[in-house]
């Protein structure tokens, strides 16, 4: 399969890379996402690009390293993007030094396979009343990721420093995943790191009216009931929203949106 393509992009990770929040039933698993959008631009500029996306929502770092790295190497990638560790940071306890040492070994394997590798820092959740409590962990994670990038001559998408994403207009109603607008902006950011031309237009966000304290409290209570509660419940039961899902693009191909755009 890989011999069909001169350039081979393989995306690894969890819900961030799978595309959760960028909902579209025309795409596998019902999501599009920034990685698909990056691949679409690469393919439109040069059809010799092939694309695979092995990311599955809910995956923790050791799952990503154990399930996705070997599968990626089998596709002989020339480009890999990987973001792993966000779901680990949200756990009650974590040994970041041990975990990032394993991440380092995984990145070393990808680089040894000949791929250019792009990593991400974690998002600064300073404005989140719930996830802001993990901000310190994320800052430590980011410094260790920067060391990995330097050690292996990888590329970095510095999510932490992208202050645009502090605007809630870029986020889905679950407040955990980027919306279509956020995934679109992230695709642009990744393409800029790759120094790749693109034709993506980032949508302008609509101004959001200020809410009264009572209205905001009601919205927060609804969010906690519909999204936070189920999310906590799954973790207490050892379950993941991605347990029964297949991989979006297990083999190299052109993403569905590109096929639709170029079909007669």
Automatic annotation (TrEMBL):
CDD domains: SGNH_hydrolase_like_1
Gene3D superfamilies: SGNH hydrolase (3.40.50.1110)
Matches recorded under Pfam families: Lipase_GDSL_2
Top-rank taxon: Bacteria
Residues covered by the SGNH hydrolase-type esterase domain: 11-184
PANTHER family for the chain: GDSL-LIKE LIPASE/ACYLHYDROLASE, PUTATIVE (AFU_ORTHOLOGUE AFUA_2G00820)-RELATED, GDSL-LIKE LIPASE_ACYLHYDROLASE, PUTATIVE (AFU_ORTHOLOGUE AFUA_2G00820)-RELATED
Record-given protein name: Lysophospholipase L1
Species in which this protein is naturally found: Arthrobacter subterraneus
